[in-house]
Amino acid sequence: MKEYTEKIHAGRVLRMFLYRKNICKFCPAGAGYKSNTAITRWRNRCCIVCEDFVQVRGCPCHTLGKRKAVVVTAESLKTKGYITGKLAVKNLNDRVNYLIGGENIE
User: Fold this and answer.
1) Cα–Cα distance for residue pair 79/103, rounded to 1 Å
2) pTM of the model
3) Cβ distance 72 to 56 under 8 Å?
4) Cα–chain-centroid distance for residue 34?
5) Cα(42)–Cα(89) distance, rounded to whole angstroms?
6) Are 70 and 23 spatial neighbours (Cβ–Cβ below 8 Å)?
7) Domain ranges of the chain
8) Alpha-carbon Rg of the chain, whole angstroms?
């Protein structure tokens, strides 16, 4: 089995941000991004890679709530260098704004 790394996690989270309407119904660490597969796999704990990525213990959506989890995850993508350039950051911010229901994140 291939090791689940931060780079893989970031890529999957980015795809979830782009293509999912409710990212909290899906787990990037799960097979096919299915809900709760990673939590089950990690023995009722959120994936350690995800926890370290956002610096939160437990599933970010469950611990922080959807809106805060989306914002914190987007900030982690930017600060860790997975999103660079003004246009990419603007596009991510626009998508985050859409995902959290139109609230300004800046």
Assistant:
1) 21
2) 0.77
3) yes
4) 14
5) 32
6) yes
7) 6-99
8) 13
Mean pLDDT by 10 residues, the chain (106 residues): 81 88 79 52 65 87 89 93 90 87 55
DSSP state of 28: T
Q: Which helix (H) or strand (E) holds 52?
A: helix 48-54
Asked if 63 and 57 touch (Cβ cutoff 8 Å), the reply is yes
Q: Which residues contact 56 (CB under 8 A, 6 or more apart)?
A: 63, 64, 69, 72
Measure the CA–CA gap between 69 and 67, rounded to whole angstroms. 5
> What is the three-state SS of 64-94?
HCHHHHHHHHHHHHHHCCCCCCHHHHHHHHH
Tally of CA atoms within 13 A in the half-sphere of 4 that contains its CB? 19
Place of tokens 């782009």: 18
Query: Is 65:32 a contact under the CB 8 Å cutoff?
Result: no
